[in-house]
């Protein structure tokens, strides 16, 4: 959510770029640009970085030479379009001491110049890159020398200098679209937790994607810096709830504290809720309702709800949201905060009260097209068996397939397409009687709805409807990007006997499924949950199309994964392998249960 709010596409200054607001007293750096010779030099530096390095010594020498050219004009290079791109990438290859040297020059004697560089549309990226290098401090701890520790101490001191400048000019950093990004990166560094989109910044392409979050050890002093920075943010909470860039910075702080400093996170949430609920509003109306509908603050409230404890959620509902959930669920902005509230409270008893209140206007939520609210209600009901039948019946009524009972067999395509019975099935043909069925279509939220319903204890209505689908609809469902996930969930959640019945209907579709990008993934998931006899049935249908499968870009992986060559030539060995895998799967399943 925080990432969605970040300012994108401004780095390379393409069309539609926002004009930066220059400070009249200190914009001299921004007006100056590198001369043509320097621009050409840094363009060649970027090209050389694209080529990569085969030897560490060569890379170290290149970095040292380029940084020697940067020395004395670091601020000018950082705020230049071409120079900043090269320097940003170069810092990811530099040593901690070299990064500290660049930061020392950018900040000047007092560090006050950090603000100008950070709030520049080019310089902000350089500052972020420099701060991100903290995650490399503790690599290969066994080989760290006394000199390495001293270099890390130099970088630690520079980061602390940045913290001091940020605290002094916090409001300016919060409101500036570029400075707020530097602030967010600084918060992540101080917590020792970098998100993947900021951690995966190196001088060459990555062969494998980085982990979603990169955790690393940090100096003790950073914990204190994070504490002091959080206190300053709370002192300016009024800015954080009214500015989108400031709100994103506070969300970042909440996110990293939730992972690394849960007590601080609770304190922050308490302070945020205390401020929002203390503001004046109309008599009898909670001020929280205004912020839930605000385009900027609603994102902050989503994060607050996501990380709140049971007591906070219970108090929010009792004191502020009771009897107000329906208007909020129908609001074009506030419905997203209600989705976060539903998700956060799913395992707490307060969800039952939220559920009952939203069920009063269930059809209105569907009519408004706010399927996110509906889907999350269904997903949360997986934890509350006593509410599952009530919700399923309301869904059947809403899609007009509840009565007579014979209509329930048509519910699956209605849920998948999010169309009522009369719309999906034209009730009159040209002759005036009978039914005309449209081609099966699958929507994203329809697929998520079916996946959630597949987690209910009683799935008989869904499974009966699945059995009623024809081969053409099953193939469409299995090869659709969203539909394949719904079919996978239904098949893997079914009992062995129920799965066997569906697989018999799919027998003639195994080959076209294997030759589809989505269908092959579905087939592999079904294979992993199938019994040995079911695997054998699937293999017998596939081996007859050996040449087609082995030449297809998707099916060839199925052929290898299922061991179909062994199935054809060494059936006994194949049977032994599959039996062993089945026993292992059952053993691990018993352990997890």
From TrEMBL:
The entry's keywords: Repeat
Pfam family, one: PUF_NOP9
Gene3D superfamilies: Leucine-rich Repeat Variant
GO-annotated molecular function: RNA binding
Pumilio repeats: 468-504
Repeat listed as a keyword: yes
Database matches in InterPro entries: ARM-like (IPR011989), ARM-type_fold (IPR016024), NOP9 (IPR040000), Pumilio_RNA-bd_rpt (IPR001313)
GO biological process annotation, one example: endonucleolytic cleavage to generate mature 5'-end of SSU-rRNA from (SSU-rRNA, 5.8S rRNA, LSU-rRNA)
Cellular component terms per the entry's GO annotation: 90S preribosome; nucleolus; preribosome, small subunit precursor
Record region (Disordered): 1-28
Protein name, entry field: Nucleolar protein 9
Protein's organism: Carassius auratus (Goldfish)
Gene symbol of the encoding locus: nop9
